[in-house]
Write a structure and sequence with these properties.
With about 170 residues, this protein is of the alpha+beta class. It is built from 3 helices and 7 strands; from the N terminus they run αααβββββββ. The strands form 2 sheets. A 4-stranded antiparallel β-sheet has the order 4-5-6-7, with no helix packed on it. Strands 1-2-3 form a 3-stranded antiparallel β-sheet, with no helix packed on it. A hairpin with a 2-residue loop joins strand 6 and strand 7. The protein is flat, with a radius of gyration of 46 Å. It starts with a helix and ends in a 14-residue tail after the last strand.
Length: about 170
Amino acid sequence: MIRKAFMITLLSVLVMYLAWNFYSTAIKYDPLASAGSVQKDERAFGLTALPKYVKAWSKDIHAKNLFSPSRTYLEPRPFPQVTVPFIPPPQRPQLVLKGIVLDTFGDFTGLIEVNQARAVPMRKGDKVEDVELIDISSRQVVLKWNAERIILSLDKTRTINNPGMPK
């Protein structure tokens, strides 16, 4: 019980101190009081004379004629035109997917014809004439040429049934 009374008394004293401090520093504050004391100090030392009037217009402004109405905008000199020869972008190679086979190791191998040359067997990661095989599945091949991804598929290819074979 004594602890409780002590704590309540301590907190009430703290609140009263904070209220008095707030009143004296914030509510009763007079910002012009300090300006009056400076003027009183100047009068006490005899500094009542104001400084001499000095023109704000300096010699630099007169010398450079900064605000003259005769000043105009000077256009900058044109830069010489540098002609860069036109370099055509590289042409995309003609790619044809001839087929996809399963090799003896169980990996898919794509037969890809590049620029109407003989079909080259390619596995995942192989590169021929800046064309890299990224991914291959049973019906589709994904190639990368420069930064372009090219997808070749066998879905459009039709197979012909052999009439000589029994159904």
